[in-house]
């Protein structure tokens, strides 16, 4: 009897591990309307959260924004008119140099407005990576996203890559925008084309057949 109970517990434990593993592997691919809703809720709630999540939506990593594991995060002097100076992977070991990541003018304006009361040397987003993760999940939940638990900073960054694909940018360009070393990594971040994009392609193909 004891042996049967032990086997049951072992099987139950492995079953639980399997469920957790499958859950961990699932990904939430955000749509444009979902991202707009998330950012809209943040914009009405917190200027800090709105600015931080907008940078994620435009491709910055959470560690580059808030700092983690040796990364310093964004400081006031890193905000430039043409983009954001970031310190990426390997910074602590001196492997990677600073890089200027291009940003739309309205995003730069937004971040500058939020950080207008800071002084040189100040950290723009003085929170931890874990706090940033919780903040994104909370806004996803408030926005009514069913799989809000699967939504985090990486999902906003992944949307940037998927959006670029939907707008006709090729894989090599997206790789450079995402600052990846190889295309295989970029493919992990790129979701399926949106229904609107697929419909447009089908219509274009139909026009080519008619002509």
Low-pLDDT residue spans: 19-24
Distance from first to last alpha carbon:
76 Å
CATH architecture: Orthogonal Bundle
- CATH fold naming: hpI Integrase, Chain A
Helix share bin: 55-70%
Molecular shape: globular
Alpha carbon gyration radius: 21 Å
Structural class estimated from helices and strands: mainly alpha
Can you walk me through this structure?
There is one protein chain. The protein is mostly helical and 211 residues long. It has a single domain, classed as Intergrase catalytic core (hpI Integrase, Chain A), CATH 1.10.443.10. Helix content is 58%, strand content 5%. The chain has a three-stranded antiparallel β-sheet, with helices on one face. It is globular. The relative contact order is 0.13. About 3% of the residues have low confidence.
Give structural attributes.
211 residues, mainly alpha, hpI Integrase, Chain A, three-stranded antiparallel sheet
Quick recap of the structure?
The chain is mostly helical and 211 residues long. The protein has helices at 2-25, 32-45, 47-57, 62-66, 105-114, 129-142, 153-166, 171-178, 183-189, 195-210, and strands at 79-80, 83-86, 99-102. It has a single domain (30-210), classed as Intergrase catalytic core (hpI Integrase, Chain A).
Chart the SSEs and their pairings.
Elements (H helix, E strand, L loop, with lengths): L1 H24 L6 H14 L1 H11 L4 H5 L12 E2 L2 E4 L12 E4 L2 H10 L14 H14 L10 H14 L4 H8 L4 H7 L5 H16 L1
Antiparallel strand pairs: 1-2, 2-3
């Amino acid at each position: 009897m004891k042996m049967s109970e032990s086997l049951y517990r072992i099987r139950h434990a492995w079953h639980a591990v399997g469920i957790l593993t499958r859950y961990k592997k699932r990904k939430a691919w955000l749509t444009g309307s979902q991202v707009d809703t998330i950012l809209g809720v943040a914009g009405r709630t917190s200027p800090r959260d709105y600015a931080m999540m907008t940078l994620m939506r435009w491709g910055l990593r959470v560690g580059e924004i808030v700092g983690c594991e040796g990364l310093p995060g964004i400081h006031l002097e890193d905000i430039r008119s043409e983009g954001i100076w970031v310190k990426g992977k390997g910074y602590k070991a001196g492997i990677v140099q600073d890089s200027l990541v291009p940003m739309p003018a309205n995003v730069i304006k937004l971040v500058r407005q939020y950080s207008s009361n800071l002084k040189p040397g100040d950290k723009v987003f003085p929170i931890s990576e874990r706090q940033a993760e919780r903040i994104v999940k909370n806004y996803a939940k408030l926005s009514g996203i069913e799989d809000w638990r699967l939504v985090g900073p990486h999902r906003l960054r992944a949307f940037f890559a998927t959006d670029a694909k939907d707008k006709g940018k090729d894989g090599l360009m997206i790789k450079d925008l995402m600052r990846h070393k190889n295309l295989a990594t970029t493919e992990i971040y790129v979701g399926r084309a949106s229904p609107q994009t697929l419909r447009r392609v089908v219509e274009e193909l139909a026009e080519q057949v008619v002509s």
